[in-house]
Design a protein that fits this description.
Strand content: 5-15%
Pfam families: 2-Hacid_dh, 2-Hacid_dh_C
Distance between the termini: 22 Å
Structural class: alpha/beta
CATH architecture of the largest domain: 3-Layer(aba) Sandwich
GO molecular function, one term: hydroxypyruvate reductase (NADH) activity
Domain D-isomer specific 2-hydroxyacid dehydrogenase NAD-binding: 112-290
Order of helices and strands: EHEHEHEHEHHEHEHEHEHEEH
CATH superfamily of the largest domain: NAD(P)-binding Rossmann-like Domain
Largest sheet: 6 strands, parallel
CATH topology of the largest domain: Rossmann fold
Family: Belongs to the D-isomer specific 2-hydroxyacid dehydrogenase family.
Protein name: Glycerate dehydrogenase
Strand order of the largest sheet: 7-6-8-9-10-11
Number of domains: 2
Number of helices: 11
Length: 321
């Protein structure tokens, strides 16, 4: 690739913790200007004269794109492109490429980690040990919280793409039976069960589908009530898929055996969230870090480099607009 393209990475610190090799990405541009973070009012100024914008979560609005006439390519350092006005980019002739499939092993193992933690009540036992209850026990062990074996249980899977398939393989390795559910807004398939048929059959439910107008809050109070008493729910997809207040209520009233989420409807949850209340039992919340293994983040760097080379070679990759 001709080494005369100026690129600006707007939010480098959202990807690199100082543990990644960015050499190939730097070599792809002349120069690559890197910013740890970029405030909304700084975006247009920083992109002046740049042919390439690299962003993980910094918003690239129609107004910003209009103010940056030299832009030819936007490289999204993630799969989701909701931070880019795709219609405006298309109108301006700017190609948008994203990264895909980079976090499958990381997110799949995080999903199973959450499911295993719920099944074995790890958080409750850790708190019991910290409170000195094991030290005071009359027996050699403490068994105050019911432990569930995944073997022989049924997992309901909502979303069976690359990530969902990886979760299914791990669940089957633990001896679980996997059933696939029908995603709203998609064509019906004989191997996908409607929610009203799927939910009453499963001991655990995991979500791996995109958030759109069809799937927002598609797991609400009605759907949670259809689950077996004591069922487990894990969401490592998008926070808006589940009605968060309904999930909090289902945990408080004891219908669910537990829930875990790596995602919330607003991130970071600066204005609070129903799932962050301190009185919700059997709930695990992780801070949207399921994707964040070093290996997954290095794959993003590799795909950003590939996408840049492909674009300037005339054969763009992973184009979303």
């Amino acid at each position: 690739m001709t080494n005369n393209r100026r690129a600006v990475f707007l939010d480098h610190s959202s990807l690199d913790l100082g543990d990644l090799d960015l050499g190939a990405l730097h070599d792809s541009f002349s120069p690559l200007q890197v910013h740890a973070l970029t405030a909304p009012e700084q975006v247009a100024e920083r992109l002046q004269g740049a042919q390439v914008a690299i962003s993980n979560k910094v918003a690239l609005t129609a107004e910003t794109l209009t103010a940056c006439p030299d832009l030819q390519l936007i490289l999204v350092a993630a799969t989701g492109t909701n931070n880019v006005d795709l219609a405006a980019a298309r109108k301006q002739g700017i190609t948008v490429s994203n990264c895909q499939g980079y976090g499958t092993p990381s997110v799949a193992q995080h999903t199973l980690m959450l499911l295993l933690n719920l099944a074995t009540r790890v958080a409750d036992y850790q708190q019991a040990v910290a409170a000195g209850r094991w030290q005071q026990a009359s027996q050699f062990c403490l068994l105050d919280y019911p432990i569930i074996e995944l073997a022989g249980k049924t997992l309901g899977l909502l979303g069976n793409g690359e990530l969902g398939s990886a979760v299914a393989r791990l669940a089957e390795a633990f001896g679980m039976r996997v059933l696939l559910g029908q995603i709203p807004g998609r064509p019906t398939r004989p191997d996908r069960l409607p929610l009203e048929e799927l939910l009453p059959q499963v001991d655990a439910l995991t979500l791996h589908c995109p958030l759109n107008e069809h799937t927002r809050h598609f797991i609400g109070a009605r759907e949670l009530a259809l689950l077996k008493p004591g069922a487990l729910v894990v969401n490592t997809a998008r926070g808006g898929l589940i009605d968060e207040q309904a999930l909090a209520d289902a945990l408080r009233n004891g219908h669910l055996g537990g829930a875990a989420t790596d995602v919330l409807s607003v991130e970071p949850p600066v204005a609070g969230n129903p799932l962050l209340a301190g009185d919700i039992p059997r709930l695990i919340v992780t801070p949207h870090n399921a994707w964040g293994s070093r290996e997954a983040r290095q794959r993003i760097v590799g795909q950003l480099t590939e996408n840049a080379h492909a674009f300037f070679s005339g054969a763009p990759l992973r184009v979303v607009s």
